[in-house]
Design goal:
heterotrimer, A mainly alpha (267), B mainly alpha (114), C mainly alpha (86), A: 267 residues, 65% helix, B: mainly alpha, Helix Hairpins, 67% helix, 0% strand, elongated
Chain lengths: 267, 114, 86
C-alpha cells in the first residue's frame, strides 16, 4: 500500500473517530457543570474520616489504594523489563571499545552549569523527601516526591561528574530500594489483613489535628514507600540508558571532562 | 466555552494520530504516542472542573468551600508518572530494533520477518 | 477570589497554546529538536493543569514531562545515532 493510499484511508478513519468523539461530547453537561455525586460525597467526608486535608492524596492512597498498588506495579515492571531487555544486549556486544579520535579536543562542561547543578543536587533530594512525606497536608505525594529525588541525583550527571554519578547508583542498592518501596506498600495492606481488617484498611491511629504530619494514618507511610520506589525506578531507567550509550564509546567524549578511558563494559 | 476544551482534546488526538501514521522514524512515533496520551489528561481534568471551584486542599481554608472534583485529579496524577516509565520501556525496544536491523524506519522494519 | 471572566480567558489561552504545541511537536522531524519541543510542550501542559486548579498534577507533569522524559529520550537518541565512519 503506497503512502498516498495509507493517508487517504487514515483521513476517512480519523473523520469517523472525530465524529464519534464530538457526538459523545455533546452528551456531557458542559464544561464547568460537574454533576456527579462521587466527588461531592468524598469532599464532604474525607476530612472528618481520615483527618487529612490533602484530598487527592487521600483518594490515591486510601479510598482507591488498590488502584494505586496496580499503578505502582506497572512502574516496577517497566523498570525491571528495561533492565532485562538492555542487559541482554550488553551481553551480546562485549567487544572492547576503542577510542575513535584520540586527539580530539573535549569540550568541558561550562562553569555556570556545574555550579548551579552541584548546588541544587542536595536541596532537590531534600525537597523530594519533603514532598514524599507530606502527602496528607499539601499538594504533595509519593509520586511527585520520588521523581524530584531522582532529578536531584540526575543533576550530578548533568554537572559533568560522571564517575560520581556512577558511584551514586550501585545496582544492588537500587534493586533493593525498588523492592522495599513496592513491597512496603503491599505489606501495609497485609498488616491490616493480619488484624482481621480489610486489605489496606487504615489501622494506624489518625492524629488529632487535620493536616498535621502525624495525621492520616497509613497515608504517610504508603506515600513514603511510593516515593522511594519511584525514585529508584527512575534512577535505574536513566542509569541503564546511560550505560547503553557508553557501551561502544567508552573512551570518547561522553561524560564531559571526566569520561576518558574507564573501559568498563558491564557491571 | 461550554465545549471548547473537548474540541481541543479531539484536535490533539487527531494531530497525534496523524503524526503516528505518517512518521518515518520510530523515535518520532513514540513522541506522537506521548502527545496522544497527554490528551487524556486534559480530558480528565476538563470533565471534573467546577466553575468557581478551588483546588481540593483545605489546609487553611474552610472545608465547605466549593472545590473541583478530586477523583479525576488522582487518576491523572498517577497516570503522568507511569507514562514516563512505559515510554522508557518502548524506547528500549526501539534500541533493540536498531541493534538487530540497523534501521529505525517503520516502513523498512515492517518488511523484516522474525 | 478570581472573577470568572478572567479565569475563562486564562483557560482559553492555555488551551490554545497546548493545541498549538501539540501541532508543533508532531510536525518536528529532527530528533534533537523534538526533545526540546517536547520539553516546552510539557511546560505548557503544566500551565494548563495549574489553571484548571490541579496543583498535584502540575507538579507531576512539570518534573516528569519537562525534565525526566526529555532526558530519557536524549539518552536513547544518543544510543541510536549514526556513528561517523572512519
Amino acid at each position: 500500500m503506497t503512502p498516498r493510499q495509507r493517508l487517504c484511508l487514515f483521513a476517512v478513519a480519523i473523520a469517523g473517530l472525530v465524529a464519534c468523539y464530538l457526538w459523545a461530547f455533546s452528551g456531557l453537561p458542559g464544561f464547568g457543570r460537574y454533576p456527579g455525586p462521587y466527588g461531592n460525597v468524598i469532599l464532604k467526608n474525607a476530612i472528618t474520616q481520615t483527618n487529612s486535608t490533602g484530598v487527592v492524596s487521600t483518594i490515591n492512597f486510601e479510598y482507591r489504594g488498590f488502584d494505586t498498588v496496580g499503578e505502582e506495579f506497572i512502574l516496577f515492571a517497566s523498570a525491571a523489563g528495561m533492565s532485562v531487555v538492555l542487559r541482554r544486549l550488553r551481553g551480546e556486544h562485549d567487544t572492547s571499545p576503542f577510542d575513535e579520535a584520540a586527539n580530539r579536543q573535549l569540550p568541558r562542561t561550562s562553569g555556570p552549569l556545574r555550579i548551579v547543578t552541584l548546588l541544587l543536587a542536595g536541596p532537590l533530594v531534600l525537597l523530594g523527601w519533603w514532598l514524599a512525606t507530606h502527602a496528607q497536608a499539601n499538594p504533595s505525594g509519593g509520586f511527585q516526591g520520588g521523581v524530584v529525588i531522582a532529578t536531584g541525583i540526575m543533576a550530578v550527571y548533568l554537572s559533568g561528574e560522571f564517575l560520581a554519578f556512577r558511584r551514586l547508583r550501585p545496582a544492588a542498592v537500587l534493586d533493593a530500594a525498588e523492592a522495599i518501596g513496592a513491597g512496603g506498600f503491599v505489606l501495609t495492606g497485609i498488616a491490616a489483613v493480619a488484624q482481621d481488617l480489610p486489605f489496606l484498611y487504615n489501622f494506624i491511629p489518625l492524629g488529632t489535628v487535620p493536616g498535621a504530619v502525624s495525621s492520616g494514618g497509613t497515608i504517610a507511610l504508603i506515600s513514603f514507600c511510593v516515593g522511594i520506589e519511584v525514585a529508584a525506578a527512575f534512577v535505574l531507567i536513566i542509569g541503564e540508558l546511560l550505560d547503553q550509550t557508553l557501551l561502544r564509546s567508552t573512551g570518547s567524549s561522553t561524560g564531559g571532562s571526566t569520561g576518558r578511558g574507564t573501559g568498563k563494559a558491564g557491571r | 466555552m461550554q465545549i471548547f476544551p473537548f474540541l481541543v482534546v479531539a484536535w490533539i488526538v487527531a494531530v497525534g494520530l496523524y503524526g503516528l501514521v505518517t512518521s518515518r522514524d520510530l523515535i518520532h512515533q513514540i513522541v506522537c504516542l506521548i502527545v496522544v496520551q497527554s490528551s487524556t489528561y486534559v480530558l480528565l481534568l476538563a470533565v471534573g472542573y467546577v466553575t468557581g471551584g478551588i483546588a481540593p486542599y483545605f489546609y487553611d481554608i474552610s472545608p465547605h468551600t466549593t472545590a473541583v472534583d478530586p477523583v479525576v485529579q488522582a487518576l491523572a496524577l498517577t497516570d503522568v508518572v507511569v507514562e514516563a516509565a512505559v515510554t522508557a520501556l518502548l524506547l528500549s525496544f526501539a534500541i533493540q530494533a536498531h541493534k538487530r536491523f540497523g534501521t529505525l524506519d517503520p516502513h523498512q522494519l515492517a518488511e523484516f520477518k522474525g | 477570589m478570581i472573577p470568572n471572566a478572567l479565569m475563562d480567558t486564562l483557560q482559553v489561552t492555555a488551551l490554545v497554546l497546548v493545541a498549538a504545541g501539540a501541532t508543533v511537536v508532531v510536525l518536528t522531524r529532527d530528533r534533537i529538536r523534538l526533545v526540546l519541543v517536547l520539553s516546552v510542550y510539557g511546560m505548557l501542559l503544566a500551565i494548563l493543569f495549574f489553571v484548571f486548579q490541579a496543583p498535584d498534577v502540575t507538579l507531576s507533569e512539570l518534573t516528569v514531562g519537562a525534565v525526566a522524559l526529555p532526558l530519557i529520550l536524549l539518552l536513547a537518541i544518543a544510543k541510536v545515532r549514526k556513528r561517523p565512519e572512519q
